[in-house]
Amino acid sequence: MMKKILKKTLKTIGINDLDYTLKKILKKPYYWTDYPMAVQIDTTNKCGPKHSGIICEYCFPQNEVLCGRDTHADMPMEWIEWIQKDMNQNMPRLLDGSWPPKQQICYFLNGDWQNESRSQTILSNHAKYLSWLPSQVFTCGTKPEEAWRFCNKNLDWVCVTLSANNAEVYKKVYHADKFNDVLKSMKFIDEHAFTNQRLETHFVITENNINGMSEWYKMIGKKFPRWRRVFSPLVKSETNLPSVKAMGNLTLEQQEKAICGVNGYQGFWDHTQTGYYQPCVLWSNAAITVHGDILQCCNWSDVAKWNYGNIAEYIKEGRSLKDYHHEKLANKQRNSLCRNCNLKHPMVKQRLSNIEVTAKVKR
Questions:
Q1: Which residues pair with 199 in a beta bridge?
Q2: Number of domains the chain is built from
Q3: 325 assigned to some structural domain
Q4: In a domain, 238, yes or no
Q5: What is the C-alpha to C-alpha distance for residues 58 and 42, in angstroms, rounded to an integer?
Q6: I need a surface site. Which of 50, 125, 141, 296 has the fewest CB within 10 A?
Q7: How confident is the model at residue 236 (pLDDT cuts 50, 70, 90)?
């Protein structure tokens, strides 16, 4: 109560954010500048026609595998455990009970957790090193026989991607007949999930499914009332040609408008309203591929060009993901991937200009 009164009093003299003001006085206005707020680990990149029986029309990574420019693999367990230990040692604990959480680890980047044979070991290590940090995984849910992997007390957040309102639209988006299999997986998870687990289903918007958003929202609400329904717009990337093709003539603004038309609450993807004073919604994310490359963010582009080294190098040199984050902040606007990204906030330059870090920039 006292905090509310204090905030209201300060607002009358022009101070809208007490925490931000104090940090600015202390020359550290952005609490996400010290370490990534969210870390995405591709423990496995197994998905696509061979492992999941589908190929999403917007998926860049799995198309890279099909074209022979990438290979399916599992991240070495020693790398996964090193990342978990590094986060436990260096990540500041800023959780405040809000949801979605400000901080998390996501054991996913472009593979599928239903194909992760080491899922139980990874989650056991999570409980050992990061019990305080929410854990998240994603799946397309096409293998009901593997749905048990998601019912684990050490897994906080389960997300099933189902970007279709019926079997016909599903075939257009995923190029396969797996709609009912996904519903079976969701039913199993719904019936066997632990009470602490958050369940979500995601709808990635494309030109083929945008007209079915409202029907999908009603269908999920009826079949799975416990599940949170999330709409995710597609974001254009300079080399993600499948995503560009799937978007067609849709703009990010049109997708956000469509989201608000179904449910205004889901309009949190509005790229002009980024929280935490960040330059974009992905700025404080660290994305690590199955091969160990640490990327600018999870918005896929040229991995060979836009990365900040490899986990194997960090382990050998005694570095931390904290070093990666400072290097990324020091690069600021020099990264053309960020300059050309349509997720950036209109005030991105002003926000970046307030960041002062000391970092050894390698490139």
A1: 158
A2: 1
A3: yes
A4: yes
A5: 18
A6: 50
A7: confident
